[in-house]
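SEQUENCE AND FOLD
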Amino acid sequence: MSKAAVRAPRPSYRCAECGWETGKWVGRCGECQAWGSVAEASAPTMRTSAGPVTSAAVPIGQVKVTEIASQGTGVPELDRVLGGGLVPGAAILLAGEPGVGKSTLLLEVAAQTARSGRRVLYVTGEESASQVRLRADRTGGVHDELYLAAETDLGAVLTHIEQVRPDLLVVDSVQTIGAAGVEGVPGGVTQVKEVSAALIRVAKTREIATVLVGHVTKDGGIAGPRVLEHLVDVVLHFEGDRNSRFRMVRAVKNRFGPVDEVGCFDLGADGITAVADPTGLFVEHLHGRVAGTCVAVTMEGRRPLLAEVQALVTPSPLERPRRTVSGLDGSRIAMVLAVLQQHVGVRLHSHDVFASTVGGARLTDPASDLAVAVALASATFVTPPPVGVVAMGEIGLAGELRRVRDLPQRLAEAARLGFKMAVVPAAAAGREAPTGPRSVRDDRVVDGLRVVEVRDVRSALHLLHLDSRTKHALEVVEDK
């Protein structure tokens, strides 16, 4: 027999995240760029043959439709994101940065569920039972139907489920639970896959609504294998600034409801409370005139939110003036500054520019471009815009204002809060933009809100009296 005939086959290596294969071990996957996910793949030992089926395949029209009944959590903002509440047997993954308030939110959900007469099992692997009890005392979450267990072994968790038989299971967190007989340490790819699969299998079999807490990486993604997000029914992200009490829950995946909803919360010393109307957290000057400010109407999911944009423009002694941004996209601020200089004549190349939002709000909606431009122009020559004005519109590189989605909802929210005038793009109303000398159209009133449609950013600033003295003001400042 030749040496080639007895040569052992070369081992292959496979990424546990995406399935990418390579002939040698590498520390980082060449496909999904995940670190430490490449391991030696075991050779297949046998081929799977045909076996018995659970039920015969039938035409889809003959499949019986069963209504999925969701049960409220007692936290309205979370029910809004989930699409009505918790569905029996559903697996939910809640991810967020350390200290953002995930445990506090889920303890509140567990307490409210227990008060409704349903049994809850709260499994903590990161804290001791006494630590969770102290938080429950502080937030008023102690109830006889809320059971607490501090475990890090999967077998012990499954035993608790058998004994308690809960209607809701909370595991905080899935990265701290380990399965005996499985390679790797708790939190590793293999361990997380095994623990998650076992808990989800129990949830589906016994119809237990299960909430798994997940860690995030330094880039903000969910830690662990990507397959974890495919296994669960709902993926929620818990977001918030450490310097602010405001928190938001955003649905990334939802098999039982919409994925464009957000829930708003206020995290305080006494626990976490739902915020049904968060606009007051982001708007400070509803009726006063302040230079360098403008109110934008942004959409968070299907909810319109008003946020105040502030700007400060000062002559710079530096060769390269500063551009400091907080709560806004720095690249879009640079684009708005370029449009103001090229198409409106507001030259700020020798000025420091500071732009921020109020209350820790983060504006990523392009419709806030016009509000940023108004705040910058107002700050340039220290002249406030008219009282009770909101501005919304995406600015193009040619200075035009582009269509705004969900305009009726935005206008209704601004009218409800008492604003008097809204400056919007003409194309946003579904009509052609005014042409020629007529660049402004003012012919609508929505619930007491005067809606003014403009063609471009120059027309918007002229309407608000923020362009007539801009050049003269800059020349005076530069002469001094």
User: Anything to note?
Assistant: The domain at 76-276 is CATH 3.40.50.300 (Rossmann fold).
